[in-house]
Amino acid sequence: MEIYRAHVLVCKGTGCVASGSEPIMEAFQKELEKKGLSKEVKVVQTGCLGLCELGPNVLIYPEGSYYCTVKTEDVPEIVEEHLLKGRIVERLLYKERDTKERFRSLMDIDFYKRQKRIALRHCGLINPEIIEEYIANDGYRALGKALTEMTPQGVIDEIKKSGLRGRGGGGFPTGVKWQFAADAQGDIKYVVCNADEGDPGAFMDRSILEGDPHTVLEAMAIAGYAIGASEGYIYVRAEYPIAVKRLEIAIEQARNHGLLGKNILGTEFSFDIFIRLGSGAFVCGEETALLASVEGRRGEPRPRPPFPANKGLWDKPTIINNVETYANIPEIILQGADWFSNIGSEKSKGTKVFAVGGKINHTGLVEIPMGTTLKEVIYDIGGGIPNNKKFKAVQTGGPSGGCLPASLLDMPIEYDTLIQAGSMMGSGGMIVVDEDTCMVDIAKFFLTFTQEESCGKCPPCRIGTKRMLEILERITNGEGREGDIELLENLAKSIKASALCGLGQTAPNPVLSTLRYFRDEYEAHIKDKKCPAGGCQALIHYEVVADKCKGCGMCVKVCPTQAISGERRKPHEIDLDKCIKCNSCYDRCPFGAIVKL
Amino acid sequence: MENQQDFQYTRQISQQYPQDKRFLLAILQDIQKEYNYLPRESLYMVQEYMDIPLAKLYSMATFYKALSLKPKGRYIIKVCDGTACHIRASQTLTDEISKILKIAPGQTTSDGRFSLETVNCLGSCAAAPVIVVNDRFYGKVTPSMVKTIIDEYGGIYS
Asked: Which residues contact A266 (CB under 8 A, 6 or more apart)?
């Protein structure tokens, strides 16, 4: 094996690829070649490092120097200074927002320091397309331990004892689910991985598949051993091309190494995994709909019971777990249930990955112990709200969850506390909104989503959400009526009680939680025909405050419809007929001279 | 429209799979990928090969968003309307593109060059708002950048 004195890790997660990490990796290879360093320094592509906001991200070991927003022009300097002369390129190091301090190592940064990475343990550190790198980091050791030192029941007991609960939304205890499937009668059983991550604003499953695909394969094989299955299916969104490609590579490599297929590690146990692609239907994230789609049918849910553990894929006992749930399994087997259950809080064990986004400084992926407060995630890790705006709410749980106001910022993040507050853990989207976001519009946004994604099988979801959406539309158009709020609440209650699957039963949550915490905004829309946050286009218009306008012309440049005019150095004017209310001028004006009324 | 050889390809796609209903979705996905939509003639062939009613294929084609019964444009512009993009004003991007191309989301320009779609979260929330043209990502897009992006693909013919 070749020994290298330094490694350059380039993030090749979707976020960094979108901001241009591919040419950077090529530039490093070329530059190292030119300087004759390619035998000493190795360039490695990795999965997501988490801080997508600052991509493309580059890490250099052994120092652990973290360079962000790297451009191809910077590459020669990094190679010359850092890799040749051993001098860290200070100007490209990550800079803390408040203190402006530059950090020499990744682990000193607030964003990482407060995290506890279990599910994401390999993301950003290993090359996901090389199985040896996974094996060198304890990969497939848990499978070996399970197959040679543990009985199937022993594996299930360990998972039960760990307290691991499903990370995909429902939060059902994983070990109990496995027990049901193990106890179910039948020669043929299946293991399914739900990688149909559809919640808007959630991308943790994609990052795990892109950054550490083998961990999912290993966990599925362990699950297969525990319940007595010999086949597994991964149902993954077709919108995630990089994840699909890396899974295909990983499965091929695992088969070649005898870690999938017949008689794994020389034991009696045989197990293989196949990929099925989703086709753009959100409801397929619901487990019974997902199974229908794997079977090649329309992805419509069916009533439960019978649960998939008894009657799943092709009516055989089946377990379905989410990607992040699986990513925890190998570590639990290796380090033991006690180690895992010591992390987190009383009722929620372990960690949870969140995709933090919206109006927040550090958009990206964070993994925190359960019981961490919302405030710690948003302010200490996420770096707070940009542009000195005021925090208004945080949305968790995607279209099934709700919005939590500032008064709940000190709440610990746990399955039960979130549900009590009217939201839910969900798959882990966490969207922060500031004072400029209208809460009625947010509720309308989520309902538009669920309404569109409703499969149409059951009337409460198909018709009920449509009626609710119509009411929200008229409220945001300034045509709200007295009694609309009560009507919304009534409909929401009925839909929650009567819809067929999780999609419909939780669809009213965003409306109910915003009504609970931001009722005054609804009332302002209905009674005063005003949108206090200035988010509803129909209820606002833009004006120039003549006293503040310096006539700099910035707004004229950004306006896509040439709606703003005026002489230089004199107050400008907005032609309301031409204005499309895109907010560009409002965002651009350095003097706060444009107002929303 | 398509010549005979094209449809030969549909036959090839189908025959890579056993005549088992469980492969139906996979076959339709492959056809969609090849032709950019599901041509009627191809559906007839699949119907014959799998021995199932055409209505069943139609029900699959209309259920899954990634399958389309109408031809799509050469350049498919997808505006992400996930939560993070939405609160960073993705709607104004859709409006601006609609105005330039004179089509609504879900439609294709009459010259068959551009299709406009709004899509669910693409998971690039850090770069919100995001638009994707075929496979190319554009992050932190503002309404005034839209025309330049469309021009990269030849712009509109006037």
From this structure: none
Q: Mapping DSSP to helix (H, G, I), strand (E, B) and coil, where does residue A492 land? A: helix
Distance of alpha carbon A416 from its chain centroid, rounded?
Answer: 20
Q: Are strands B136-138 and B131-133 parallel, antiparallel or unpaired?
A: antiparallel
DSSP element (H, E) containing A190: strand A190-195
Cβ proximity of A204 and A356 under 8 Å: no
Q: Could you tell me the residue range of the domain that residue B122 belongs to? A: 75-151
Interchain pair A357, B59: CB under 8 A: no
Cβ partners under 8 Å of residue A498, min gap 6: A458, A460
Among A527, A558, A578, residue at a domain's last position = A527
Q: What is the pLDDT along chain A (597 residues), one digit of tens a residue?
A: 678 999 999 999 888 888 889 999 999 999 999 999 999 999 999 998 888 888 899 999 998 899 999 999 999 999 999 999 999 999 999 887 777 778 777 778 888 888 999 999 999 999 999 999 999 999 999 999 999 999 999 999 999 999 999 998 889 999 999 999 999 999 999 999 999 998 888 899 999 999 999 999 999 999 999 999 999 999 999 888 889 999 999 999 999 999 999 999 999 999 999 999 998 899 999 999 999 999 999 999 999 999 999 999 999 999 999 999 999 999 999 999 999 999 999 989 999 999 999 899 998 899 999 999 999 999 999 999 998 899 999 999 999 999 999 999 999 999 999 999 999 998 899 999 999 899 999 999 999 999 999 999 999 999 999 999 999 999 999 999 999 999 999 999 999 999 999 999 999 999 999 999 999 999 999 999 999 998 898 999 999 999 999 999 999 998 888 999 999 999 999 999 999 888 889 888 999 899 988
Q: Is A21 on the interface with B (CB under 8 A)?
A: no
Does A581 lie in the same domain as A515?
no
Beta bridge partners of A192: A233, A320
d(C-alpha B25, C-alpha B7), whole Å? 18
- pTM value is 0.92
CATH number (domain holding residue A409): 3.10.20.600
Are B83 and A364 inside 8 Å of each other by CB? no
Nearest to A296 among B22, B67, B119 (CB): B22
Q: Which domain holds residue A393?
A: 351-434
| A67 & A97 share domain | yes
Q: Domain boundary at B14, B34, B63, which?
A: B63
Interface contact B63-A455, CB threshold 8 A = yes
Contact A377, A369 (CB under 8 A): no
The CATH number assigned to the domain holding A554 equals 3.30.70.20
CATH code, domain with B120: 3.40.30.10
A216 and A321 co-located in one domain: yes
Specify whether B41 is located in the same domain as B83: no
> Do A267 and A214 have their domain in common?
yes
CB-CB neighbours of A457 under 10 Å = 17
Cis peptide before A306 (omega within 30 of 0): yes
* CA-based nearest residue to B126, from A90, A386, A440, A9: A386
The reply to whether B82 and B122 lie within a common domain is yes
CA dihedral A339, A341, A344, A346 (to 10 degrees): -150
Inter-chain residue contact B65 with A280, CB threshold 8 Å:
yes
Task: Report how far residue A264's alpha carbon sits from residue A256's, in angstroms, rounded to the nearest whole number.
Answer: 11
Chain A: closest CA distance from residue B96 (Å):
8
